[in-house]
Write a structure and sequence with these properties.
Structural class: mainly alpha
Radius of gyration: 38 Å
Largest sheet: none
Order of helices and strands: HH
Strand content: under 5%
Number of domains: 1
Distance between the termini: 125 Å
Number of strands: 0
Oligomer: single chain
Low-confidence stretches: none
C-alpha cells in the first residue's frame, strides 16, 4: 500500500503543471465565447433601438392619418356630395 502512495506522488506532481498548461487554451476559448456573446448582445441592442425608432415614426404617421380621417371625415363627405352632379330629370 505504501508503494502505491509513493507512486502517486510523482504522478500528482507532474499532473498539476500539465493541467495548468492545458487549462490556458480552455481559458482563452471561454474568453472568446464571452466576447462573441457580448458582441451579439450589442448588435441585438442596436437593432432593437432602430426598430423602436421606426415604430415611433410609424405610430406618428398613423396618428396623423387618424386625425385626418376623423377631423375632416364629415366635411370631406359633405364636399364629395356637393361635387356630385344633380340628377338629370
Amino acid at each position: 500500500m505504501e508503494n502505491v502512495i509513493y507512486a502517486l506522488i510523482p504522478i500528482t506532481a507532474l499532473s498539476i503543471p500539465i493541467v495548468a498548461i492545458l487549462a490556458n487554451p480552455l481559458k482563452r476559448l471561454i474568453a472568446l465565447q464571452e466576447r462573441k456573446v457580448e458582441l451579439a448582445a450589442t448588435t441585438a441592442g442596436e437593432a432593437a433601438a432602430q426598430y423602436a425608432a421606426k415604430i415611433e415614426r410609424l405610430e406618428a404617421r398613423v396618428q396623423v392619418l387618424e386625425r385626418i380621417a376623423t377631423d375632416k371625415g364629415t366635411a370631406l363627405s359633405a364636399e364629395i356630395e356637393s361635387l356630385r352632379l344633380p340628377p338629370l330629370n
